[in-house]
Fold:
Amino acid sequence: MKNLYIVANWKANINEEEATEWFDFFKNNADSTRGELANKKIIVCPTFPILPFASAYVSLNNLQVSLGAQDISQFPIGAYTGEVPAAIVKKYAEFVIIGHSERRMRLNETDATLFAKVAMANGALFEIIYCVQDENTTIPEGIKIVAYEPVGAIGTGNPDTPENAQKIAAAIKEKNPFVRAVLYGGSVNAENVSQFTEQASIDGVLIGGASLVAGSFTDLLFKC
Ligand code: PGA
Structure:
């Protein structure tokens, strides 16, 4: 069995009460003594205000979960009102998602912005999950984990075909030899996840909608 990254991107959903229920369910149902979880790095990415709570819950209950931030400031600690700098978030999260298409489109994030965010994240020793829309998206040198997420597949119920996702994942690795893992994201659920994870060049999945309900997410974990 190959190692897989399974990333839950909660986006702008799930308050603290809902997160408590989600983690309670996970604790009782995603039993790490079951063999199926042994090859999986499970990364949950809540909103910033939930990260300290999630971090405390995960360590208190010894859950097989790592935490990720969904974004990070391009600026360092300092006079940048409203920004959330990498050095402050690092206490609560090991991973950070950079370059999600929702941020590229709705918040006009450019390659220059994203490269500045990568520099900040590297400075704080984050593991970066860098999102790209296809094999032609520029990837900063040294990025190890990439998520291939075709825009038309996100939140639509119309995933890419596993064969095409495999082709793009292989092309990304070939063009960017520093990339160690390519994840697929876009309408992944418990029914289709294994079709993606069984592809030779795909090393995991990034899940939005199907990660919000703990039951669907744990189902998915045991199906790949
Ligand atoms: P989706 O989102 O699973 O709801 O399609 C994936 C993502 O945007 O990361």
